[in-house]
Design brief:
23% helix, 7-stranded antiparallel β-sheet, 2 helices, 2 domains, 274 residues, alpha+beta
């Protein structure tokens, strides 16, 4: 019976984590370039129960021998194994703002591959994003809404001096002072990226390093100026998943309550000394 407590409680904890993940997806439905997170539930290892006893053989000596019979398997709970971002392409939205850029992935050589803009944080470390809603700071650099500067293919921040510039489909940015190529990075396995904030990613511990998308054979992409890529969160699907998760949490809660009532009855009635 005590095992049932842990099984029901593990289900509630997994449902709670799943609900938090889905709530975060909905809260970022209007974040440009946001990639919804998906969760994977996994059961703990099952136990094989056996009945242990003894039986008497029908012989003249009637020896008593051990007897074992298989009862069946027992689940020991469930947990949220991992959360991974879904890098499927979001819809494009025209804004008419020159600093807005949508990065669209074409044919890629890897099933889980993805292309991302490369930016630099305040510590000079590389970060990656699909959010192309950039602005121009007071020094003329293209930055994200968190102040991270957009980089060129040489790893240098891009200074446009204002909003008067053009960006080609290949990511070539042209101003009155010349041209520079945007740093578009490619990863063959987007599942190895770890979210940082709402729209930034960093390679995980065992992830493959990101490379220049232009130098990877078979990687096709296009940059669309005056557009942003919308979040790929499906509101209808996410709301349905939230309702299912909530119902599952309620069912585990009722199971936990039933076990509690059984334990109370066992202690107060069955175990009472008369």
């Amino acid at each position: 019976m005590l095992r049932g407590f842990y099984t029901a409680a593990s289900g509630m904890m997994a449902n709670q984590r799943m609900q938090e993940m889905l709530s975060n997806n909905i809260s970022n439905v209007e974040t440009p370039g946001y990639k919804q997170t998906q969760g994977s539930l996994r059961a703990f290892p099952e136990l094989l129960l056996q009945q242990m006893g003894s039986k008497t053989l029908p012989t003249s000596t009637a020896p008593v021998v051990p007897d074992q019979g298989e009862v069946g398997s027992l689940h020991t709970g469930v947990y949220l194994q991992e959360t991974t971002p879904d890098f499927s392409q979001g819809a494009l939205k025209e804004t008419g703002v020159s600093t807005d850029m949508a990065l669209v992935a074409g044919e890629l050589p890897d099933e889980n591959g993805a292309v991302l803009f490369q930016v630099e944080n305040s510590d000079g470390e590389a970060r990656y994003t699909k959010n192309g809603s950039f602005t121009v700071d007071g020094e003329g650099f293209l930055t994200t809404n968190t102040g991270y500067r957009l980089l060129d293919e040489s790893g240098n921040p891009i200074n446009t001096g204002g909003q008067a510039f053009l960006v080609s489909k290949t990511g070539m940015l042209t101003t009155d002072n010349g041209s520079t190529q945007l740093a578009v990075s490619y990863t063959p396995d987007a599942n190895g990226l770890v979210p940082e904030g709402s729209d930034l990613y960093v390679p995980g511990e065992n992830a493959q390093p990101l490379g220049n998308a232009l130098e990877n054979e078979g990687v096709n992409f296009s940059v669309h100026q005056n557009y942003i890529e919308r979040s790929n969160v499906d509101m209808n699907q996410t709301m349905t998943e939230m309702m299912n998760t909530y119902r599952s949490f309620e069912m585990n809660q009722r199971v936990l309550k039933a076990y509690d009532q059984s334990m109370q009855q066992a202690v107060s009635e069955i175990g009472r000394i008369r």
